[in-house]
Amino acid sequence: MDLRKRIVASYDAREGTMKQVAQRFKVSLELVKKLVWQRNRIGTIEPQYQNQGRKPAFADKNLKLLDQFVRQHCDATLKEIQLHFSDRVSCSIQAIANALKRLGWRYKKNRYERVNKIETM
């Protein structure tokens, strides 16, 4: 934080251009630009939390709709759920399984039914 404060203070005191401030503190020009932009835009020069990874396919309203659908159609397969929500959400079957898991729904395997389904295919 100390270096960030000195960089912004130096730029604010007009001790040079952004490029000159970057060279003086031996940092990239992009860092100086980022700190000035972040301070003007967000109001802080502290490091920001980085959201990494893909956003969930089912969130907020769609997650509630998924929960309602599963309550009404508790025997629906993941593929059937995917087809039902295809106009709202484009996602994989695994994404649906993850959303169901977040909602607290569990899949109970029944070996006998599974064997019969495989044989009929």
Describe what you observe in this structure.
This protein has helices at 2-12, 18-25, 29-41, 60-72, 78-84, 93-103, 111-120. The longest helix is centred in the first third of the chain and has 13 residues, at 29-41. It has 121 residues and is an all-alpha fold. The chain folds into 2 domains: 2-41; 60-120.
Our Rg estimate from Cα atoms comes to 26 Å
| Terminus-to-terminus distance | 62 Å
Query: Can you give the helix content as a percent range?
Result: 55-70%
Largest sheet: none
Spans where pLDDT lies below 50 across 5 or more residues? 113-121
Kindly name the structural category: mainly alpha
Would you tell me the overall average pLDDT? 86
Sum up the overall morphology in one term: rod-shaped
What is the number of strand segments?
0
Order of helices and strands: HHHHHHH
Q: Treating each run of at least 4 consecutive H or I residues as one helix, how many helices?
A: 7
Tally the structural domains. Answer: 2
β-strand percent reads under 5%
Element layout with pairings:
Blueprint: H1 2-12, H2 18-25, H3 29-41, H4 60-72, H5 78-84, H6 93-103, H7 111-120
Helix pairs in contact: 1-2, 2-3
Properties at a glance:
121 residues, mainly alpha, 2 domains, 7 helices, 60% helix, rod-shaped, disordered C terminus
Quick summary:
By secondary structure, this protein is mainly α. The chain has helices at 2-12, 18-25, 29-41, 60-72, 78-84, 93-103, 111-120.
